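Data card: per-record layout.
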Amino acid sequence: MTSPAVDPSPSTPTTAEPAPVPTALPGAAPAKPARRIGGAVWAALAIVYVVWGSTYLGIRIVVDTVPPFLASGSRFVAAAVLLAAIVAWRHGPAALRVDRRRLGSAALVGLLLILGGNGLVNLAETDIPSGLAALLVAAVPVWVVLLRTVAGERPGLGGYGGVLLGVAGLAVLTLPGLSGEVGIGGVLFVLLAALLWSLGTVSSARLPMPANPFTASVYEMLAGGLAGIAVGLLRGEHHGFDPGSVSTASWAALGYLVVFGSLIAFTAYAWLLQSAPVSLAATYAYVNPVVAVLLGALILDEALTWPIVLGGAIVVAAVCLIVSTERRR
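The structure for this 329-residue chain is written out next.
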C-alpha cells in the first residue's frame, strides 16, 4: 500500500542507497548523500511487487471464514514470532534489543502500516472484490507526495505528473462504489487504509528506527498484529467464531500470508524503506493491482469491468512515470 522522491532514513548495517532530502520534519535524522540504486533494491522491489499483489487474493479467501481484524492480527503476530526467532538464530538475541525511543517508533509505524493499512483492507475485502481493493490502494503515492510536500520536499514535475495520473485512475476506480455495484463502505475503508499506510511509509523514513531493518520489522509486526487482535476483540469478532468452521482454503491462505505476505514481503518492504527512496518503495502500489486483478479474475472469477481495466491501465502508466523520474534524481 504503497511514491516518489527521497528518504532521510537512519543508517543501517545492511542499507544501500538512501537519497537526500531538501527539508526534513523536526527531529528527523540528518539527510544522507545520494547513492546509486543497486540490484538488491530492485530485487526487493520485485518481491514486494509480485508477492504483495497475490496477498489481496489471499486476504479475500481468508476473510470468507475468518473475521478480518482477528485474521490480520494473528497473521502478523505469527510472522513477528517467526522473524524474531530467525534474527536471534542468525545474529544472537542481542540483535533484538533496542532502546525505548526506537521501540516506540517501530510500534507507531506498525500501528499505521498494519493495524490501519492492512487491517482496514481486510475489513474492506469482506465487502468488495480483491482486485478493486488492490487498485484503490493506488491512492498511496498520492498521499505520500502530499505528505512529503508538507514536509518541504519537492518531488518534481515527473512525480506530480505521476500523481495526477494516479488520481485520474483512482477516480475511474471509484465508479463501481458510487454506482452501487460494490459497497461504498469498502471503498472508503481502502482509501483510509491507503492514507494511514502512506503516513506510516513516510514516518518510517524520518523516525529513529532500529538500525537492523529486520529487527524493526519484528516490532512493527508485533505491535500492529497485537493491536489488530485487540480491535477484533473490541468489535466482538470472537463472538460466534468457531475455528473449526474455518475452511481449508482459508487456513492455507492464512499460512501463505504469514510466510510470504508478512515474513518475506513485509520484511523486504521494511528493508526498502531504509535502503531506497520512499517514493520508489511506494511504487509497488501501482504494480500490485495488476497482479491482484489477474489473480482475482482467474481464481475467484471476479469481473473485469471497464472501470477496473481502464483505471488499471492509467495507474500502470503512472508508475512508469514515477519510477523513470526517480531514477534520474
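Known properties of this structure: Residues 248-275 form the longest helix (28 residues). Residues 97 and 215 are 8 Å apart (CA to CA).

See the next section for split statistics.
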